[in-house]
Design goal:
Helix content: 40-55%
Low-confidence stretches: none
Order of helices and strands: HHEHEHEHEHEHHH
Number of domains: 2
Number of helices: 9
Length: 249
């Protein structure tokens, strides 16, 4: 089979999976069930916490919740180091999300600067890969908490386990406390599932679209679905201050 034929087969397979996910609550619920089963048996401690980046400019509440959760893991003795991730954001063009997170953690939430590390990446996959490179020479790091919101974990967790599995690091989910259970009809959940299938191939053993031609077509398919999802009614996110008071008072 030629490279073009392989690329076409990959596109067709992923487009079919995306169509099924978007159109079927039953299929989405089944994937959620598999995801939730993979989130069981989380230990009390891990060596480090990797806080997934996002844009403070676009998502200030989400940003602060992730940073605060990662900081609390260290302050409560559950990890020895916190890694903040993220460089620029394609939507907002902000820069160095990881540095913004570290500054917030140290100046606002009481984390010592020496306990925080930073890595840069422009998307979920790059953030995880950069964190793996950072930890490459740290042979004592055998386990990691992946800190992000529960919707994002649908996509980020299998990807992180695939990438860190190459170096023998166990990855455990650490969702933001106090979030609602994952709803198969939540537009944010559908968004993450579509991205997970098309970009990361989570239902197909993480086969990455390495060919630029294939990647371009996948981008177009993702955009098609995201435009549809963006037209759905989203539930407003709880503000950081209300969330913090509710979950950490």
């Amino acid at each position: 089979m030629t490279a073009i034929e392989l690329g076409s087969t990959l596109l067709l397979r992923r487009e079919c999976l995306a169509r099924r996910l978007f159109g079927s609550e039953k299929v989405r619920a089944r994937l959620i069930s598999v995801h939730e089963a993979s989130c069981e048996r989380v230990p009390e401690r891990a060596d480090v916490a990797l806080v997934m980046g996002t844009s403070f400019k676009l998502y200030p509440d989400k940003f602060q919740k992730r940073v605060y959760t990662g900081t609390q893991l260290l302050l409560n003795g559950r990890v020895a180091k916190v890694i903040f991730s993220g460089s620029s954001d394609r939507e907002s063009r902000d820069e160095n999300q990881a540095l913004q997170a570290k500054i917030m953690a140290t100046e606002k939430f009481g984390l010592a600067a020496s306990d925080a590390l930073t890595v840069g990446g422009e998307n979920t996959k790059e953030n995880i890969e950069e964190a793996k490179r950072l930890l490459a020479n740290h042979t004592n790091v055998k386990s990691l908490f992946l800190v992000t919101d529960n919707r994002h974990l649908i996509r980020a967790l299998p990807l992180a386990r695939h990438i860190f599995g190459e170096v023998g690091t166990e990855v455990y989910p650490l969702p933001i406390p106090g979030e609602e259970p994952i709803d198969p009809n939540d537009p944010g959940v559908i968004r993450e599932m579509i991205k997970a299938v098309l970009y990361n191939g989570v239902m197909n053993k993480n086969q990455e679209p390495t060919d630029v031609f294939v990647k371009g077509y996948i981008d177009e398919i993702v955009k098609f679905y995201l435009d549809l999802i963006d037209s759905m009614p989203f539930v407003a996110e709880t503000t950081f201050d209300v969330w913090r008071k509710t979950n950490f008072s």
